[in-house]
Amino acid sequence: MKNLLLIKQIYLDAFKNLGHVFVKSYFKAFAWFCFASFLIVLYAFLFRVSTGFAFD
Predict the structure, then answer these.
(1) SS3 string of 9-38?
(2) What is the distance between the alpha carbons of residues 36 and 47, in angstroms, rounded to a whole number?
(3) Which of 19, 22, 52, 53 pairs as cysteine with 48 (C-beta 3.0–4.6 A)?
(4) For 18, which DSSP code?
């Protein structure tokens, strides 16, 4: 739980006093897009590992 709160605080501090609303919204959307992409890649890798895919 402590790690989750630390990540939340880092996320909030990253966007504090960033500037224009459009820039802030763009970077927030981009951060969520990157996080979602990372989760998809992680899921695909774990799926391949669990099904016995041969990484030649």
Answers:
(1) HHHHHHCCCCCCHHHHHHHHHHHHHHHHHH
(2) 16
(3) 53
(4) -
Q: Is the dihedral of CA 29, 32, 37, 40 positive or negative?
A: negative
Contact 31, 11 (CB under 8 A): yes
What single letter denotes the amino acid at residue 12? Answer: L
Give the type of residue at 53. Answer: F
- The pLDDT score that the predictor gives to residue 40 is 98
Query: Torsion angle, CA of 26/32/35/38, rounded to 10 degrees?
Result: -80
User: For 36-52, what is each residue's pLDDT tens digit?
Assistant: 999 999 999 999 999 98
The token pair at 8 is 């939340």
Decide: pTM greater than 0.85. Answer: no
pLDDT at 5: 92
